[in-house]
Design brief:
about 130 residues, mainly alpha, 4 helices
Length: about 130
């Protein structure tokens, strides 16, 4: 867990990056102090500035950004899956009530007709044997 000083520094770094028009990341190792000062002067003359941040502060910021991007991507994926699942569920469970009612009526008509036919056959047969 980062300490409060690092969290404050991270906030400053984030604010500095958000407010800038462009950001360049350079490796200044190997430069002498004099060469580093000359680079800073040249940048100031051009209307820019050079800031040096600790690697761990920048790494925290990078990790937080990566985690945020993954969370956003997972949220988008979940929203897409939710819509897909709702559509699938709808196509499998939704019933056309009018169609099913007509099917029911046809089956009931066939059932009643079968019962009526069976009754007529049975009455005639019983009377014939008495």
């Amino acid at each position: 867990m980062p300490c409060n000083a690092n969290v404050n520094m991270l906030d400053k770094v984030s604010e500095s990056i958000e407010n800038s028009k462009g950001v360049f990341v350079v490796n200044y190792l190997g430069l002498t102090v004099k060469e580093s000062q000359e680079v800073r002067r040249a940048l100031r003359a051009a209307g820019a500035e050079m800031k040096v941040f600790k690697n761990n502060i920048v790494n925290y910021n990078t990790r937080i950004g990566a985690i945020e991007n993954r969370i956003d991507a997972a949220k988008d994926r979940n929203d897409s899956e939710k819509i897909t699942l709702k559509n699938t569920l709808s196509t499998r469970q939704d019933v056309d009530i009018a169609q099913k009612y007509m099917e029911y009526q046809n089956q009931m008509l066939a059932y009643k007709s079968t019962l009526a036919m069976g009754t007529k056959i049975m009455q005639t047969t019983v009377l014939d044997y008495m």
